[in-house]
Amino acid sequence: MKVILLKDIKGTGKKDQVIEVSDGFGRNYLLPRKMAIEATAEAVHSIEKSKQAEKHREDVKRDEAEKQARDLKGKVVVVKVRAGEGGRLYGSITGQEIADALKAQHGVEIDKRKIELAEPVRAVGQTTVTLKLAAGVSARMILNVTAE
Which residues contact 74 (CB under 8 A, 6 or more apart)? Predict the structure, then answer.
């Protein structure tokens, strides 16, 4: 019996995979538990269509991320904070503060979790910040920290 798996099943196969199973295993275990559907031509066609649609969505998202990376590359974000003697900050610059400054200065909304700092920014000056926009797409920006 040929079935299309609806979930990953350990030792059997991955989701959306068409596999050959024994009649008893398919009819008595996989089908009643909604882990698989019978592999008819119509079901196989619908799975292929959904895979194509998902690939198209990922391609569009990646293209948007690459465009955004080109726009942001090399831009400077200025963050003004209170500082003490010798340019030391009271605390450190967080991803949220960088995201807020990006939105205010360049009109770009980026999730704070997508901002990577090599080490915490605790002094006045310039540093490089990496923005992870999508899988394999990143942009480097310059963060300029100034004292108020």
Answer: 140, 141, 142
- Beta-carbon-side half-sphere exposure of residue 73 (alpha carbons within 13 Å): 10
Task: Express each pLDDT in 101-134 by its tens digit.
Answer: 999 998 888 999 999 988 888 899 999 999 998 8
Identify the pLDDT of residue 13.
95
Rounded to two decimals, what is the model's pTM? 0.69
Length of the chain: 148
Q: Burial code of 91-126, b = ≥16 C-beta within 10 A, e = fewer?
A: eebebebbbebbeeeeeeebeeeebebeeebeebee
Q: How far apart are CA 99 and CA 120, in angstroms?
A: 15
